[in-house]
Design brief:
Layout lengths: L8 E11 L10 E13 L5 E13 L7 E3 L6 E2 L12 E3 L1 E12 L1 H4 L12 E12 L19 E9 L10 E8 L8 E8 L1
Parallel strand pairs: 5-11
Antiparallel strand pairs: 1-2, 2-3, 3-7, 4-6, 7-8, 8-9, 9-10, 10-11
Amino acid sequence: EFPINSAQYTLLDLGVTYSAPDFANSDYDFTRYHFRLFRRQRIFGLGTSALDIYMGASDGNLPPQNLFVLDHSDPVFTTGIGFKTLDQRNYYGDRALSIYVNHNFRRLLFGKSGLPLIKKIPFDFSIHGGVFWTEFKNGMTFPQNAGLPSARTAYSELGFMLSNLTPFLAPFNFALAFTWQLSDYDTSRFAWQIGLKL
């Protein structure tokens, strides 16, 4: 939990799921581990950064409902955290790693430019980017997993966002994001998104 509008905070999530035939009469035999770290903080007076790291691993054979899934996001609210070039594609695995970073300079880059027109621009500017990887460590261990795509080589993207586009409509803060895929997957090479910035 964290205070609304708090500039700096850390969220940590650790979890283990255990299933075995001799434990609660389970039909499956596996152990699933996950770790998530989210950190938001100010950086040297140059704005605020957010870092989201997720790692997942497993022993045994994960059933389809317990696979790790890197899914596409199509949010109304634009947070800057979340992959934007996936189209409607999801990537699965029984191991996964995801790292995403967003840094919001707010108006600093425009205000400190010293250029007469540029320094008066009221928009916030931020950059975002991330990388993820998923894999089935023993191939497709369940027939139900056949055909599920995994990202065995890193999927990556990078972009920027302009927000506070409608300061006259506060608190409705519209934002426009532009993102390019840096890897070589059959999803969008470029994506743009408009929405409400939280």
